[in-house]
Amino acid sequence: LIQGVTSDIYLLKLGDDSVKKIVGQPGPDNNPRFSPDGKQIVFSSAMGNTTFFASNTRLAVVGVDGGTPRSITDSFDESPGLLDWKPDGIYFTAQQKTASHLFRVAPSSKITRVSSPDDLMAGGFSLTRNGDAMAFVAGSPASMNEVFLSDMRRFAPRKLTNMNEQAKSFTLGTREVISWKSQDGTTIEGILIKPANFDATKKYPLLCIIHGGPTGIDRPLLLTPDSRYYPSDIWAARGALILKVNYRGSAGYGERFRKLNVGNLGVGDAWDVLSGVDYLISKGWVDKDKVGCMGWSQGGYISAFLTTSTDRFVAISVGAGISDWATYYYNTDITPFTINYLGN
Length: 344
What we know:
By secondary structure, this protein is α+β, with helices and mostly antiparallel strands. It has six helices and 20 strands. It has helices at residues 232-237, 255-258, 267-282, 298-309, 325-331, 335-342; strands at residues 9-13, 18-23, 29-34, 40-45, 58-63, 66-71, 81-86, 89-96, 99-105, 111-113, 121-127, 133-140, 143-151, 158-159, 174-181, 187-194, 204-210, 241-246, 286-296, 315-319.
């Protein structure tokens, strides 16, 4: 991780074991894939940007003999996850707010979204060797992740599994995406989990769960696997509201949003959490004397920040959070993160 800013791309010829560097620009370059004819390589790149943590990753193309890399996703305002290069184009996945999709980009830089509908939450895509079919997993607020199969020429998913069957006897709350204005007017989204028997005339305890990253994201997937740390569905079944805040810096909302906490870690993020709490209180749904907060990693840092900046919460849990940025820089192998977000 500490050397991530210097990762380059090399070509190893198996016939004579010769090695040649073909991409050596500043910033990380990784995850190379050959073109179908073997004459070019597409790869993920910061395109020379050494302060890349909150910036969009690019997909770039270069010849197998080297040369100047050419970005083909400059017009795409998110970080593409490179999948493969097939005869009809280069495939990648990306977040679109809380949704996630499969895209195709031609070497001419024309980008087409392959999957639908708009709110699809899909991932784990696997394409056949000749690119005529795909497999992937997808879920929804009412469905756990299931495995699907689809033709590449026409996106028409066919479900192969029924994971929901094992949860049919569970008492599960409902999930929805909500939004509100933060202290500085920025629109923030979050995932609200309501108890199954939710009554809008009653006031409920509220538990805020803050994801890490900061470029993580929470999505309204049924039984989203956060139970390793926080069993939100169990708490909802016991009568609590759960709010998962996609605070500034979260993935899926574009580069400008992702950079809103550069030089501002903890401060703007805390605004986003507190304004979300206020929003739900204003709806009349929350007992303001029974509000708790928790988070892991960057979410732990935000939670720790909130312990010293507000008395809104009656209980706060800090999981693997940063309490001192200096010791975090000196004692970990993620030193570029600190410089990227807080400066030298």
